[in-house]
Amino acid sequence: KLEKGASKEFNEGGFKWKVSVSQSGVLVNHETFEKNIVLTCGIKGRGYWRCKAVVEWEQYRSADRNLGWYRLINKEVFDFNVANRDLVIKTSCRMGCINPLESTHYDTIVHEFRIKIIESELPPIIDLAKFCPSGMGNVTL
What we know:
Largest sheet: 6 strands, antiparallel
Structural class: mainly beta
Shape: globular
Strand content: over 45%
Number of strands: 9
Number of domains: 1
Order of helices and strands: EEEEEEEEE
CATH architecture: Sandwich
C-alpha cells in the first residue's frame, strides 16, 4: 500500500525497485486530472544499473478489480540508464474515475507493475589496483 506522496522500496528479481507517487494532482480543462508515478531501479549496494525493459502498468480501484469498471493500462519499452534513472509515468483520468485528489472515496487505488527486462548492464567494477598503497595489485590475501 502506497499513500499519496510516499515511496516504497521492494526487492524483485535480484534488483531493488523504488516506486513513488506524486502527491500533487493537476486539474486540466476542469475535468482531467494528471499525476506522476516514478519507477527507479538499482542493485542494493551497487547503485543504479542500466537496463532496457518492457514496463506494463495498470491502475484500478481494489474494489473494482474484478468488475473492470475503470482500468488504466499502458505498456512501454524503457531504457533505464545513468543519465535518465527514473521512469516517470504520467497518468490522467476524467472526473468520476480514479482521482488522486479524491482517493478517500475509494478503499485503495492499486498501481500494478509488470516488468520484463530485455537486456541489462551492471555498473563498471572499480579497479582496486588503483587504490593499493604499494601499487601492487597482484597481492592475494
